From TrEMBL:
<comment type="similarity">
    <text>Belongs to the TPP enzyme family.</text>
</comment>
<dbReference type="InterPro" id="IPR000399">
    <property type="entry name" value="TPP-bd_CS"/>
</dbReference>
<dbReference type="Pfam" id="PF02776">
    <property type="entry name" value="TPP_enzyme_N"/>
</dbReference>
<dbReference type="InterPro" id="IPR029035">
    <property type="entry name" value="DHS-like_NAD/FAD-binding_dom"/>
</dbReference>
<dbReference type="InterPro" id="IPR029061">
    <property type="entry name" value="THDP-binding"/>
</dbReference>
<feature type="domain" description="Thiamine pyrophosphate enzyme TPP-binding">
    <location>
        <begin position="390"/>
        <end position="536"/>
    </location>
</feature>
<dbReference type="InterPro" id="IPR012001">
    <property type="entry name" value="Thiamin_PyroP_enz_TPP-bd_dom"/>
</dbReference>
<dbReference type="Pfam" id="PF00205">
    <property type="entry name" value="TPP_enzyme_M"/>
</dbReference>
<keyword id="KW-0786">Thiamine pyrophosphate</keyword>
<dbReference type="InterPro" id="IPR012000">
    <property type="entry name" value="Thiamin_PyroP_enz_cen_dom"/>
</dbReference>
<protein>
    <submittedName>
        <fullName>Thiamine pyrophosphate-binding protein</fullName>
    </submittedName>
</protein>
<dbReference type="InterPro" id="IPR011766">
    <property type="entry name" value="TPP_enzyme_TPP-bd"/>
</dbReference>
<feature type="domain" description="Thiamine pyrophosphate enzyme N-terminal TPP-binding">
    <location>
        <begin position="10"/>
        <end position="124"/>
    </location>
</feature>
<dbReference type="InterPro" id="IPR045229">
    <property type="entry name" value="TPP_enz"/>
</dbReference>
<dbReference type="Pfam" id="PF02775">
    <property type="entry name" value="TPP_enzyme_C"/>
</dbReference>
<feature type="domain" description="Thiamine pyrophosphate enzyme central">
    <location>
        <begin position="197"/>
        <end position="332"/>
    </location>
</feature>
Amino acid sequence: MTKAGEARLGGHILADALVAQGVTHAFCVPGESYLDLLDGLYAQRNRIQLVTCRFEAGAVHMAEAYGKLTGKPGVALVTRGPGACHAAIGVHVAFQDSTPLVLIVGQIPFEETDRESFQEVDYRKMFAPLAKWVTQIDDAARIPELMAHAFDVATSGRPGPVVVAISEEMQKELAVVPDLPPAPVFPPHPAPEALPRMMDMLRRAQRPLVVLGGGAGWTAQGKADIRDFLLANDLPVAVSFRRMGLFDGTSPNYVGDLGVGADPALVKAAKQSDLFLAIGTRIGETVSQGYTLMDMAGSKPVVHVYPEQAEIGRVYRPALGITADLNAFAAAVRALPPVEKPVWSGWRAELRVAREAQARAPDYEGPLNLAVALQQLEKVLPPDTIFTTDAGNFATWPQRFMHVGAGQDFLGPTNGAMGYSVPAAIGAKIVHPERTVVSFVGDGGMLMTGQEIATAFHHKVNPIVLVFNNAMYGTIRMHQERTYPGRVSATQLTNPDFARFIESFGGHGEVVEATDQLVPAVQRAMASGKPAVIEVRTNPEQVTNRATIAQLRAQAAKA
């Protein structure tokens, strides 16, 4: 413990500031630009677990997964220049996913500013469109102040990433300054008149639809409270893109997800709805299906609940906007008397039937019916499994055919970042070593950040990675075949033997080529206690779960 009035090096003040903010994990690729901070973290090694990663993007994805799972800012540390550039994709994920994150970037000595010194970058300019706030600390005495503010900004309103650059010589300065703990701030609650107005609108509705969104902002209690309100009123509930962990997919009130690859029947129903309750979602491009679900002038009544007032009405003019912390809103509506004999119960049942029809596995050609295999898998996984997903067409298979349970979590990048799933799975397993973590990733994304599996071995955690291998960038090939059928360019891939890749580390590797092989392979992976990679060799002709390449070419020929 630091004694009152004791002079400390800036690097140690910074490490102590992280402790003061309640940080328990930090994910990093070490660099010479923050050696003094690393030394400060050595002094705090019993309080902060420093996770050594292999690539800066992987480190930030791990920190972002930490933020999603805990609701507290994930912390990542990277070096200047190339390290910061590599980390930028993770900052973009955190920004579009509204995940609290603090990225600390080593910086050149500030006396060398504007000389294009070795690895010099102006981080205020670089990260301005990607982060909620960007600052640079050049005075060691201001570290507690600026770090406390960074954590406040990351978690306030709409959560998001903050970038803090730390100049090299500042870390070596001595300063006498007290540590600052988090400020006790009560979250915003719904205005007293808001909820009666919302319930009046609900009573007049015939075909309401709820869309749940938001990620790190929800607590377990908040999710339970909003569930109870939605069930008490027998409302049909969809989730926004890659937010399947917000509502029990097995519930008769769950009607699907509004995002990339959404069920056309759900999209049609969303357009037909006469009240749109958007709770925790920005109603962005993916949820609104390219801004086509409704007009922006407000002809369809929208109730928009969001913690950041500036986001309400940003695109769609709501009939009622409610600025509130999501958990505070959930607790408030749970206490309300439900609508008596809601007239929309039949509508809700219709949407559930459509959801069940979408999840029914078609008779795909070939020895592997991936839809059936995934549904067999969901039956044997623990009820508290954490799923992570990458971007790509493969991701629409678990999204369409699996049902994420009430006690499970589902983490995915809403900005479509490839390379997210494997490091996110490792970060999730570090946060919750007692829970099973399953990563869904394509062959393209696997070779972007799959080397982070070394981090899993280094820190002795054992995620299970399912690599869906069709030897192509499948999403781009799909668009290619729709627009330029038969003219295949830049989308074919040459891949390694992924099972042997993990075995080279000493892990568990298997190859799955038939429907009934997936569950036993995953069960053996779980029993091994080792990090595992299961390569699932899929039919490249079945480029989406709704169409083959031949079908896409035929459709293009008719256009």
